[in-house]
Write a structure and sequence with these properties.
Distance between the termini: 35 Å
Strand content: 5-15%
Shape: globular
Largest sheet: 5 strands, antiparallel
Radius of gyration: 28 Å
Number of domains: 5
Length: about 675
């Protein structure tokens, strides 16, 4: 039994959920309540005690097991959920290696330093000598005492060793104080405070842990208005969003996040009651920042950057990151809408929120689409007399951004807008667009229908169980196959293992799977948003596989290292063991390696996994891409079947005869019909 299975065996999902959802009631064989993740009047959140699973058939359209519920409820990642639930269940996690323990101990020590420093800065703001600073916060920045307290805003006195003396007094070493960026060591070896005579704003990660600081200048002669903690073991501003720890609940509930440029924008927005605002701290938006909020919490990102030239340049760079991400076809699309908020009169969000807080919601709602923003931005230099060459240059600069949408209707509309704005014929614009569009790849020739796929043992647990009964021939005259030996594990688990193994060996194949799902959905938005959406963690039933799928998608959303190297860096021991088992076919070899020199062998496994994860990897007579697509479609069929069973239970149980229940049954019926349409299309594809 795996660690996650052991935990789930000890913690009943009904009991766990009931702690946070008191309205959960038994309804037939299931338990039902209004979903805790969105507002609703008719219960659509269902728990199946027999399978120890949950599913929301309302706006969330999500589900899973104990781990996925805990992750969604608390905003934990898999590591956090594993640690917290293991502690509750009394399950001992795999012991860390000496190197891992040393690294974790160091991180905890450094976090202790930053947490203590935040308290010292906050205490300094309360001193009599800081009365003028408190007055500045109230009168010039418009911040009340509750906001100052909530964000732990502090003050660094005009001293070379205020923080050094305070932290040394707690027993901390100079090397560690320098490491977290609170002190600087010069060429002569002298150590002194980094922040002096500055307003201090602690920067916390998404879990609320202080990892760095921002210091705003208070003296007229200071060279830099803001200075941040330097890049360190704890602090990487390209992977942080200021205010996310305080705003993630509001972001999740509203489904949208507003990304501003600076700390004060966020602080002012939260004080005004708009907790879904976070900041990228002056940098252009990065993929890791996107992944912190979308699609994990938000389906819509609104960029609310300053109206000055620096803010507009940041918007350009942010959109370029989005364009590169989309044209790399990360699951076809970022799965979020991106809009640009233009603040009137050239103000930044901080100024606007202080003067007109009530107008903020309408401003966010009316944010400009990326297409409109890009067209306006690139075409603003044109005049009525601009030459055709100048207008064509603008078109060629703008078209790549307009072509990343997978929806042909949006593409056409955007191209028409651009043609009208540039006074170029739509026919010429479409021709240029076609020149810039990537050439479609020719589909490989299909194998004869009666030829069984040549699936090697490395990927499959039981070579006889290629397809489930749902895909067997249905003609009356068909011969019944001979009775086959029982598989070593359930078929659906074998399919999950195969799919994840193939994706680990070649992550780019995920694009092909998602492309097939979009192809089956065609232009049907309901299917695209629902039963034929992208392959994701929800298609897997095993907790470890769900977590690995999330990490795999994260690995593809970053550019710093190869996917396998990224996984090696971020996975804990439990999930590393799963990866080893998926990358090596011989279970005896896996066991031997795990019991032996784990770290050395693990490095070798990941290295060989990285070598296999390259385009074109295949075995003679076997198309990994084609077979993965079929297996992934089978996974989706299993998921749809499971969800339909739950929806049918809901239909049966909503028999009160009230108008609201009639409406609710109609909604469920529509979802069942949509699921059946998706199933029919998948069956055609896999048959």
């Amino acid at each position: 039994m795996s660690t996650t299975d052991d935990i789930k065996a000890r913690i009943d999902i009904v009991s766990y959920v009931q702690r946070f959802v008191p309205s959960l009631k038994k309804a037939g064989r299931n338990h039902k309540a209004c979903c805790p993740f969105h507002n609703e009047k008719t219960p659509s959140f269902v728990i199946n005690p027999a399978r120890q699973t949950w599913h929301c058939f309302g706006a969330c359209a999500e589900g899973g097991d104990l781990f996925s519920f805990a992750q969604k409820l608390h905003g934990w990642d898999f590591k956090e959920a594993l640690r917290e639930l293991a502690a509750e269940a009394g399950v001992e996690l795999q012991r860390q290696s000496a190197a891992q323990k040393s690294r974790n101990d160091q991180l905890e020590r450094l976090r202790g330093i930053t947490a203590s420093a935040a308290e010292f800065f906050q205490g300094a703001l309360r001193r009599e000598a800081a009365a003028g600073i408190r007055s500045y916060l109230r009168e010039q920045r418009g911040l009340n005492d509750e906001t100052v307290q909530a964000f732990q805003i502090g003050y660094a006195p005009d001293s070379w060793d205020f923080m050094l003396r305070a932290l040394r007094g707690l027993g901390h070493q100079d090397d560690d104080i320098v490491e977290v960026g609170l002190a600087v060591r010069n060429e002569n070896g002298r150590v002194y405070d980094r922040f002096r005579n500055r307003l201090i704003i602690p920067i916390r990660d998404e879990r609320g842990r202080v990892v760095g600081f921002g210091g705003r200048a208070l003296g007229a002669g200071d060279s830099a208005k803001y200075i941040n903690s330097p890049q360190s073991t704890l602090f990487d501003k390209s992977r942080l969003l200021f205010g996310l720890d305080m705003g993630r609940t509001a972001i999740r509930e509203g489904g949208a996040v507003v990304i501003a440029e600076g700390y004060m924008d966020v602080i002012q927005a939260h004080q005004a009651g708009y907790a879904n605002v976070v900041a990228q701290m002056g940098t252009a938006m990065t993929e890791p920042q996107i992944r912190l909020v979308a699609p994990r919490y938000a389906k819509r990102i609104v960029l609310a950057l300053d109206a000055d030239e620096a803010g507009q340049n940041a918007a350009r760079r942010s959109l370029d990151v989005a364009r590169q991400t989309l044209t790399r076809d990360f699951a076809g699309k970022l799965s979020v809408d991106i809009a640009i908020l233009q603040i009137p009169a050239g103000k930044d969000p901080d100024d606007y929120l202080r003067e007109s807080p009530g107008g903020w919601p309408a401003l966010v709602e009316g944010a400009q689409s990326v297409a409109d923003f890009v067209i306006d931005m690139e075409a603003e230099s044109l005049t009525a007399d601009s030459s055709l060459q100048a207008r064509q240059a603008v078109a060629q600069a703008v078209l790549p951004m307009l072509l990343v949408s997978e929806n042909n209707v949006y593409k056409q509309d955007n191209i028409q807008k651009l043609a009208r704005r540039l006074r170029i014929s739509e026919r010429d614009m479409l021709a240029w667009a076609q020149e810039q569009a990537p050439l479609p790849q020719q589909a490989p020739s299909a194998a004869p229908p009666d030829a069984p796929p040549d699936l090697p043992p490395e990927y499959w647990d039981n070579e006889y169980e290629i397809a489930g009964p749902e895909f067997a021939a249905e003609s009356d005259g068909a011969e019944k196959p001979a009775e086959l030996p029982a598989p070593s594990k359930p078929l659906k688990h074998a399919i999950e293992a195969f799919c994840l193994s193939a994706l680990l060996k070649n992550p780019d194949l995920l694009y092909q799977v998602n492309r097939k799902l979009r192809e089956l959905a065609a232009e049907d938005e309901d299917l695209l948003r629902g039963p034929l959406g992208e392959l994701c963690a929800h298609d897997f039933t095993q907790s470890q596989y769900r977590a690995l799928m999330v990490f795999l998608q994260d690995s593809m959303a970053q550019d710093d290292m190869a996917p396998m190297e990224y996984l090696k860096d971020v996975l804990d021991d439990d999930l590393r063991t799963e990866v080893m088992a998926l990358l090596i076919s011989d279970s005896d070899a896996v066991s031997e390696r795990i019991n032996g020199n784990f770290q050395v062998d693990l490095n070798d496994i990941f290295r060989r996994g990285s070598q296999k994860a390259r385009p074109g990897f295949s075995l003679p007579g076997f198309s990994l891409k084609e077979d993965l697509v079929i297996r992934a479609l089978q996974l989706r069929l299993q998921r749809l079947d499971s969800e339909r069973v739950e929806m049918q239970y809901l239909q049966e149980e909503a028999q009160t005869g009230s108008e609201s229940d009639d409406h609710y049954r109609d909604q469920i019926s529509a979802k069942i019909m949509l699921s059946m349409r998706a199933k029919a299309r998948i069956n055609v594809a896999v048959s």
